[in-house]
Amino acid sequence: MRSAAKRLSTRISSYREETDMSVIDTTTPRSHGFGFAFAPRLTRAIATLTAQVAEARERRATRQTLEKLTDRELDDIGLTRGDIHRRF
């Protein structure tokens, strides 16, 4: 009776070892090709491009506002007409 229980225990142990080895880890991102790591890089690229476009629009709006000021108003804030295009 004990030998049958021992054989059963051995079979269960070996079965567990076999099934443990066949598990595939799907939580680790792959960095080759268009794997799981592609999406975050694409997201960062889009975010960077969006930020650059927003900054360019803000600089253009600032430049247009400063160009509407008179030379006296520009002098009051410490700028000249040439500074507008060099800084903005």
From TrEMBL:
Q: Which Pfam families match?
A: YjiS-like (PF06568)
The record's listing under InterPro entries reads: YjiS-like (IPR009506)
Ranges for domain YjiS-like: 51-85
Say which domain of life the source belongs to: Bacteria
Query: What protein name is recorded for this chain?
Result: YjiS-like domain-containing protein
The scientific name of the source species is Sinisalibacter lacisalsi
